[in-house]
Amino acid sequence: MPGTDHPEERTVVDVLVGGSDSPLLSWVERVEDGDIVVTVGQDRSQRRVRVADGDPLELVWRAASELRSLPARLVATEAASGGEVCWRVRPTGPAARGQRRSAVRAPLSLGVSAEAGRLRGTTVDISEAGFRGVLDGPAGPRVGDVLDVVVDLGPGRLVATVAVTRRHPRADGRHEVSARFVELPERAQDQVRARVFAGLRDLRRRGLL
User: Fold this and answer.
1) Does the pLDDT at position 123 exceed 80?
2) Averaged pLDDT for residues 163-191
3) What span, in angstroms and rounded, lies between the C-alpha atoms of 59 and 127?
4) Which of 97, 130, 155 is at the close of a domain?
5) Number of Cβ atoms within 10 Å of the Cβ of 64
6) Where do the PilZ domain residues begin and end (predicted)?
7) Is residue 44 scored above 90 in pLDDT?
8) Which residue range forms the structural domain that includes residue 20?
């Protein structure tokens, strides 16, 4: 069953190589003939990682109510449409409950407002764990403040609560802060993660990564 026995097309997955604890970020392009075709995995620095044919892998993704994990192996590296390079992955066992994934950050400028619009600005970078942003307003938030924010993910909006963890000095009177999401639901985490990955793909396509 798609989503339970294997990840669905156009979803974000973590790829663990050879039992590593450091996941790579990937995207499911298509599922065909029992194989899963995913984009080449990227590490936290957004670098593509080379994996040899036959190496064992583990795919981790978000299903309807839980994380799922699927053991597999790499059977081929192949070109896809648009110049993308993909891995052809073949399952080697049944899917089971998966473990929590790591957060991947992208340098994206997204509109953000806080305190019912009293503070407005843009993100400098964002992940499912939180964001760094520059805000305009009469008085900036302090470290430890808890704020209700709206982030324009384009498409879609993220309504969330954040805790300010750090202020960054600026000379222009604007307020630059780092903030972490507070109890962000899994579905919202997936929404942010998908936007992060789409943004990374766009930056790479434009030669900016």
Assistant:
1) yes
2) 91
3) 20
4) 97
5) 8
6) 99-197
7) no
8) 12-97
